[in-house]
């Protein structure tokens, strides 16, 4: 017995992280470009508002496997709005929006096989 509002709150905080859906960048990019975009986002993310420790936890979660990512967001009390981590809230209600490129790779990522061969 309980009100629907409290049940919704429980469901919201217990959402499980899922692998993001496949997506395509507006133009094909290299892994180096993707890494640069990610670094630029994480360097500026705390300036969008919210708490730095939550941004740090979200970065760690975005770069981890699903099980570890779930443990990270649960440990800092992040409320997951979208299961792919693109929209989350902290316990104070601050919103954290992550672009797709920080949580997964685009389907049109250019894989430079020449670099892979030269590293052998």
With strands numbered from the N-terminus, the spatial order across the biggest sheet is 2-3-4
Q: Beta-strand level of the residues, as a percent range? A: 5-15%
Instruction: Give the CA-based shape.
Output: globular
Q: How far apart, in Å, are the first and last alpha carbons? A: 63 Å
Outline the low-pLDDT stretches.
1-13, 116-120
Query: Kindly state the mean pLDDT as a whole number?
Result: 85
Oligomeric state of the chains present here: single chain
CA-based gyration radius: 17 Å
Structural class: mainly alpha
Biggest sheet: strands, sense, closure? Answer: 3 strands, antiparallel
Number of helices: 6
Helix content bin: 40-55%
Can you count the beta strands?
A: 5
Order of helices and strands: HEHHHEEEHEH
Domain DC-UbP/UBTD2 N-terminal: 14-112
Protein name: Ubiquitin domain-containing protein 1-like
InterPro entries: DC-UbP/UBTD2_N (IPR032752), DC-UbP/UBTD2_N_sf (IPR038169), UBTD1/2 (IPR039869)
Biased composition (Basic and acidic residues): 1-15
Describe the structure.
- By secondary structure, the chain is mostly helical.
- Helix content is 47%, strand content 10%.
- The protein has helices spanning 4-13, 31-44, 52-62, 66-76, 100-103, 113-118, and strands at residues 29-30, 79-80, 87-89, 95-97, 109-110.
- It has a three-stranded antiparallel β-sheet with strand order 2-3-4, with no helix packed on it.
- Helix 3 packs antiparallel against helix 4 (66-76).
- It is globular.
- This is Ubiquitin domain-containing protein 1-like.
- It comes from Salvia divinorum (Maria pastora).
- Residues 1-15 have a biased composition (Basic and acidic residues).
């Amino acid at each position: 017995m309980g009100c629907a509002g409290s049940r919704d709150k429980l469901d919201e905080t217990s959402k499980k992280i899922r692998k993001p859906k496949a997506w395509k960048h507006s133009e094909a990019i290299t892994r180096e470009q993707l890494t640069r975009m990610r670094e630029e986002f994480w360097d500026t993310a705390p300036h969008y508002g919210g708490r730095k420790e939550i941004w740090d936890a979200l970065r760690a979660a975005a770069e981890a496997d699903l099980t570890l990512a779930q443990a990270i967001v649960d440990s800092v009390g992040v409320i997951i709005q979208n299961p792919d981590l693109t929209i989350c809230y902290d316990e104070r209600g601050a919103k954290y929006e992550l672009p797709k490129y920080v949580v997964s790779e685009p389907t049109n990522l250019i894989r430079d096989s020449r670099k892979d061969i030269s590293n052998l």
